[in-house]
Amino acid sequence: SLEPDPLNHDHLAKWRGYYAPNRPSHHKRILVTGGAGFIGSHLVDRLMEEGNEVIVVDSLFTGKKSNILRWLNNPKFEFVRHDVTLPYQAEVDQIYHLACPASPVHYKYNAIKTVKTNVLGTMNMLGLAKRVGAHFLLASTSEVYGDPQVHPQSEEYWGNVNPCGLRSCYDEGKRVAETLTMDYSRQHGVEVRIVRIFNTYGPRMVENDGRVVSNFVTQALEGKPLTLYGDGKQTRSFCYVSDLVDGMIRMMNSEHAGPLNLGNPEEFTVESLAHIVREMVNPNLEIVHMAATPDDPTRRQPDITKAKNLLNWQPKVRLRDGLSLMIEEFRERCNL
Ligand code: NAD
Ligand code: UDP
């Protein structure tokens, strides 16, 4: 019909003329917010290698241009230094929304800004998705489960989150981001996807971001003692970045809104991670115990049944293999 169906965004986008007629249909214009960061830059590599046009919007708060250096002269690639708390306009088919500091050190640095990034930033990108009919994927987090009382965590679990704590700017920020995403879907018919990412590691992590894998690898390569916070019995599950990116792309191109857990279900205590890194880099290293961080979740492990069933996805890279790739890159990049 000549009139657009207001709840059919593909239809609306065509009607508004956002589809370039001379572009092959398999070739997409994709916006990646936070694309100069750790996960974002690996996602950008994959999307560019598949032949898409990619726009990265990033404030470079924690991201680096060097992460996307190899694409800067490519005509299909564009980098825009921009803060997502302010509106941004572009004609795109898909939006991967990752912009948000992810490590506790970074998101606590300016907690109010973290809330703004999650709330205003997500609203701005959903508004853009609505206007141009783009499919929108939110990079949410396992932190929406807080300090979980259900184990392992499946998507049905509503979480156990402190609204007033030091981590709340991030946890509650992402929870509102999820709410906004679902409301734009229900109220405006935007095609949305939510993935809840569990601890991810790999090359290009910021070496001093305070996260456990990057800390241990950097400390080990510098020959310093590994710092274990608390008793080290708390658990995490570590997903190698290429596995995660694969799951994110599958989710975007699926028919499912989610929320959907993406992570590696293999669970390790932080202490055992320290032992593995020590054994891989230098068996003589000391392990020192330090004070536990406040609000630190004691257990975390994803239930990925849904991702297995809906996307036929599961991680392939074993912890030791992923660690060895990361250690190699850290050695080279950081001259360690
Ligand atoms: P990162 O810090 O490397 O990347 C975040 C990127 O967002 C950076 O490039 C940063 O400069 C950019 N950014 C931050 N605030 C911005 C703003 N206001 N405007 C524009 N750009 C901004 O972190 P990451 O590990 O790559 O995480 C990417 C996404 O994945 C985040 O949304 C994070 O919450 C989510 N996530 C990551 C993990 C993990 O283990 N790494 C786990 C769960 C969720
Ligand atoms: N941790 C640690 N030593 C470090 C850094 C972190 O023992 O040098 C612990 C931290 O207390 C937490 C776990 O490792 O229990 C994971 O911390 P990280 O900051 O990587 O991620 P998150 O808490 O967000 O899962």
TrEMBL record:
GO molecular-function term, one example from the UniProt record: UDP-glucuronate decarboxylase activity
- Annotated pathway: Nucleotide-sugar biosynthesis; UDP-alpha-D-xylose biosynthesis; UDP-alpha-D-xylose from UDP-alpha-D-glucuronate: step 1/1
The record's principal subcellular location, in a coarse class, is: cytoplasm
Q: Tell me, what is an example of a GO biological process annotation in this record?
A: D-xylose metabolic process
Which Pfam families does the record cross-reference, listed alphabetically? GDP_Man_Dehyd
InterPro entries in the record, alphabetically? NAD(P)-bd_dom, NAD(P)-bd_dom_sf, UXS-like
Under SUPFAM superfamilies, the record lists: NAD(P)-binding Rossmann-fold domains (SSF51735)
For this protein, the Enzyme Commission number is 4.1.1.35
Which cofactor does the UniProt annotation name?
NAD(+)
Q: Where in the cell is it found?
A: Cytoplasm; Golgi apparatus, Golgi stack membrane
> Any signal peptide, and if so, which residues?
none
Superkingdom of origin organism? Eukaryota
The protein's UniProt keywords, in alphabetical order, are: Cytoplasm, Decarboxylase, Golgi apparatus, Lyase, Membrane, NAD, Signal-anchor, Transmembrane, Transmembrane helix
Residue intervals of the NAD(P)-binding domain: 31-326
In the UniProt record, does the keyword Cytoplasm occur?
yes
Bilayer topology = Single-pass type II membrane protein
Q: Which reaction does it catalyse?
A: UDP-alpha-D-glucuronate + H(+) = UDP-alpha-D-xylose + CO2
Stated family: Belongs to the NAD(P)-dependent epimerase/dehydratase family. UDP-glucuronic acid decarboxylase subfamily.
| Protein name (database record) | UDP-glucuronate decarboxylase
Q: Which organism is it from?
A: Galdieria sulphuraria (Red alga)
